[in-house]
Amino acid sequence: MNTFIAYCGQVWRQLAGRYYRISIKQRILFSFIVLITLSIGAMGSFSYWTAAQEIEDNAYAGSQETVSKTTQLLDSRLNDVALSVQSLMLSDAYRKMMIDVFSHEVSNYYVHLSELQYVLSQATFNQPIIENVLIVTPIGDFYSTTQIRAQDSSFYGSELYDLSKEQPGGYWAKGHYDRLFTGDQRVISFVVRGIYEYPYTPISNVYIVVNIKESRIDGLLNQGGEPLGRNYYLLSGEGDAVVESRWPFRGKFPWRPMMAEDGEEASGQEHTYPYDGKEYLVNYKRSAVSPDWIISGMQSRDQLLGKLQRVQRTTLYVIGVFLLTTWLISNQLTSALLKPLFKLRRLMRRVEENQLSVVYESRYEDEIAQVGFQFNRMMSEIKTLIEDVKSKEKDKRQAELRALTAQMEPHFLYNTLNTIYCKSVMGENDDVNEMILALSQMFQIGLSGGKDLIPLEDELSHVRQYFAIQQKCYEDLFEYTVSVEDEELLACQIPKIMLQPVVENSIQHGFSDRSGGGRIDITVGREQGMLHICLEDNGRGLDAASVKQGMNTAPLSQKGYALFNIRHRLALYYGADARMEIDGAPGKGARTDLWIPLGEER
Fold it and tell me: Per the confidence metrics, is the pTM higher than 0.70?
């Protein structure tokens, strides 16, 4: 239950969200449509419901009366059949036969068979509903010679005989195939024990079986009902078909009546029942002759209410006409009312496209016009603020870039001067001279006349001079290569001092645990319209995840700020267009990839 309530709440929120997102024009149109639809629909539905209820009540009352009359007629026919059997047992021919049965005399069998022909013919003449009569005795079976007895079927081995043991006073058997006479037709049977001398106790081994065709009972039930779309069925108290000639159901009757303890049908206001996707009016009446039999009337509700379909269609047509009229009127009305808002919305869209010179103009001085004038004042203030922000952001960006570049240069300078000092102390003057010359050339390139962007060729010369200095500091520690796949790339402008900090990390950290065999490879190429620079070493490697995490936040100390500095400067120059990736694993070296847009100077 809680899950269902939560689901309904979620659906309601989704519908409410969609309603809030539609335009005012659509809301007005939707409101008109809902109002008109509810008004006309409520009126039409109430009229339809009232008429349908009246028709249903009348049809139910008429069907109940028909069921009652049909039940009386059926009871009368069944009573007549029972009376015919009693008349047969009072005949002289029957009495003579019973004397021989009682004395087990079989010699007069054919005599009694001939004498009983008139009695049997009289019974079928008086009651045309009777198909055939069979008198079962220990000395033989007696029946009308106009009928052909099925000699291979014995009554004593049939289901009728088994039922006779359970109901010794006689009973009506539901529809079944006649196995006692040829023809294999479906019949309803009345089975009763034979009387020796009426009204004495019946003889247990003599039975009279009267068969009635199912089709005659069905015709009796449904005479006059078909034109009204009604069908009547005879069923047992368990819901099984007594007559299956028109039985349309799969299995038991779907509306088995609820019986009260006194045997009468339970009363109730509801008399419409669903079945197979349709609804039916159903009535019940119990037979007085065979209390286990029930006559049920059934009528399709759709067929009963067919005449109301015209009213329903007319209501739908009226709703359609009103909806179309509402749509046309609301379109004109909302267009006139919302025209100033649409104009203001077009101006706002132009503002979204950075056209900040738009101005709202209107001859009216209503509420919407006041909003437009407020929009003009807002745009004037926005343009002023934008100019101020642009100026301040430009100054801030230039200051931040120069601060980051200045942060890189002292860092390298400290390390290099320390190395030169060590060389001079040890008396390696030639190396000191070469290092000072290389440092001078590096500073010349690094200063670059105060420019923040330098050609890639100068940046590579800068890092080569750095390699020369470091090879003097760490003799035989490493080798390096610099390869460029396209000479035209050397003219590309990139931020200065981008490669030297990465090379310094490789030397200081990647080769810190070795005395030789190091290698650093720098490759420059073009990839998907961008300048791709790859720096790779065979040092002791790194934890790529930790390094990437450290690159996203400013370090708290001087240690480890180089990579963060490079990434930050790339973001300031190129935004999301440039990127930097670090890869590697402990013991497997490290790799740094830089992607810089071509042909852009930021």
Answer: no
